[in-house]
Structure formats: C-alpha cells, structure tokens
Specification:
- The protein contains twelve helices and ten strands.
- It is an alpha/beta fold.
- It folds into two domains: about 140 residues, 3-Layer(aba) Sandwich (Rossmann fold); about 110 residues, UDP-galactose 4-epimerase, domain 1 (Alpha-Beta Complex).
- It has a seven-stranded parallel β-sheet with strand order 3-2-1-4-5-6-9, with helices on both faces. A three-stranded mixed β-sheet has the order 7-8-10.
- Helix 1 packs across helix 7 and helix 9 packs antiparallel against helix 10.
- The longest helix is centred in the middle third of the chain and has 16 residues.
- The protein is globular, with a radius of gyration of 19 Å.
- The model has no long low-confidence stretch (mean pLDDT about 95).
- This is NmrA-like domain-containing protein.
C-alpha cells in the first residue's frame, strides 16, 4: 500500500492521475488537509485520509497499513524540515519499508534559495532514519518559471531580475517519471536527477516566445521585491522568491540528466515549450 502526502497539490494530482494506470485505486492512500478537495479520489475508490504535517496523530492515522511513502515536500515556508521530520519519524513507527521523497537537483547545505537547504536537511534525515529511500531530485518546476515570465511582461517588455540558466521541468513530466520509479522492481538510483534536457534563462525564453516580440529588461532585486509587495505578497515570501533568481545567477540549477527522458520515453518539455503552449 502506497501512501502519498500532498495528494491534492499539482504534483500530487499529476502523480495519482498516472499512477492509477498501473495500480488499483484500493492500493493507494491519498492524504489531504481536506477530504472535500479529494472527492474525485473517493469516487475512484482511493482511500482518502485527512492529514496535517503538524498533527502527529493525523500522520500516524494517515500512514496506518502502508508499506511505501511518497513524501511530497511541504510548501510551508519556514516549517518544511519540521514537517518532513514528523513524517519520517511516523514512517519509521508505522513500519514503512521505503520512502520516496521529492527533492531538487539544487539540494545543498548552503544555497541562495532556502528551499534547497530544506531538501539537503531532509535528505540528511532520510539517511539517518535507517529506512531505505529514494530522493527524487526534480528539476525546477517549469510552471513556476512560466508564472514569473508572464507576470513580468508589460507593454512588450519582460521585466525580471538578473538570472541564469535553469533546468525548468514540468509537473506532468516529473510525475510520469516518478510513477515509473514507484512501480519499478529494479530502480536502484538513490538520488536520481529528473530534468528536462535544456537549460533556459529568461532572456532565452523571451527570445523564443512566439506570441509576440519581447524586449528583455533586467530590474534590480529590490525592484522585484517592491513589485511583489505592492501586489500584496508578504515581504518574506517576496525575498524567498527572489532567492530563485539569485541562486540561478550562481548556476545552482544547471544539473541536467537523461534519466527522465528514459523513464517517460520522450523528451521532457522545456520552459520554452510551456510558455508557447500557454501564450497568455
């Protein structure tokens, strides 16, 4: 029995959408903060359980009778490591035999983007847990890159902070690759890097956008933070997001690998593919 955290998030939904092609719904436990968001899972026969990373009793109930855990990383900025530690401890208590964790290719002890430090700390917890695990190091979500891209376009110009090349990779491709790892009998890579095959900067994205001819203009880091806060984004979140651009300037997201292509049997989409498909 496989239990999945974050089952109603974008990645979780893409994983389950593909997973049910290979496993019976009755063999899947989907954890969510609200069952109302998972009615479609219930209708399919998936075991849906309410779950909160900060409620250890709900974690224990959520993991009951499971043998494998797909730990989709928490998005609660500032509390992620605590959440992951609670889950890993509960997995050990529940007798879970294998943990699959959604990490990142940029995982490192010190990073300009604090989420990478979270992944590194979580991988250390997994190493120390004694539970066999696979830390799936995903490329940066291309959908996030597309949001920065489209939000930055004004009057024919793309305004973003200085940035470097990034291994932008879609949720859909990553989910399909992860499912192939989940169902494999002989996948032995402990830290697989799942990425698209092309590194893309925002300047390159602007040059390759087909809907309109864009001028590319870099803005200061502070201007970026100011723009977000004026649009009601909390300052600490704005600075957190700025870290993505700063880290990319230091080439923290430049790992690429062909594992994902081999797993899904096609070339993964790039950020350029995503923005040209969406064309807002």
């Amino acid at each position: 029995m496989l239990v999945i955290t974050g089952s109603t998030g974008q990645l979780g939904r893409d994983v389950i959408k593909d997973l049910v092609k290979y496993r019976k719904p009755s063999e899947i436990i989907a954890l969510t903060r609200s069952k109302e968001k998972a009615q479609d899972y219930i209708d399919q026969g998936i075991d849906v359980r309410e779950f909160d990373f900060e409620d250890k009793e709900s974690i224990a109930k959520g993991f009951k009778d499971s043998t494998e855990l797909l730990l989709i990383s928490s998005n609660a900025v500032g509390h992620e490591v605590e959440h992951h530690q609670n889950a890993i401890e509960a997995a050990k208590n529940a007798g879970i035999k294998h943990i699959y964790y959604t990490s990142h290719t940029g995982s490192k002890a010190k990073s300009q983007f604090s989420a990478m430090e979270v992944h590194h700390a979580t991988e250390k917890l997994l190493e120390d847990s004694g539970i066999p695990f696979t830390s799936i190091r995903n490329g940066f979500y291309a959908e996030s890159g597309a949001e920065f891209f489209f939000d930055g376009i004004h009057d024919g110009t793309l305004y973003v902070p200085a940035n470097g090349p990034v291994n932008w990779t879609t949720h859909e491709d990553l989910a399909e690759g992860m499912v192939q790892i989940l169902i494999a009998d002989n996948f032995t890579e402990k830290y697989p890097n799942l990425t698209a095959q092309q590194l893309v900067s925002f300047e390159e994205a602007a040059k390759n956008y087909k809907a309109e001819d864009l001028t590319y203009q870099e803005i200061s880091d502070q201007d970026f933070v100011d723009i977000l806060t004026k649009n009601h984004v909390p300052e600490h979140i704005a600075k957190f997001l700025l870290g993505i651009f700063i880290a990319s300037r230091e080439d923290e997201f430049t790992t690429i690998d062909n594992i994902l292509e081999e797993l899904i049997g096609r070339k993964p989409k790039t950020l350029i593919d995503v923005i040209n498909e969406e064309q807002r």
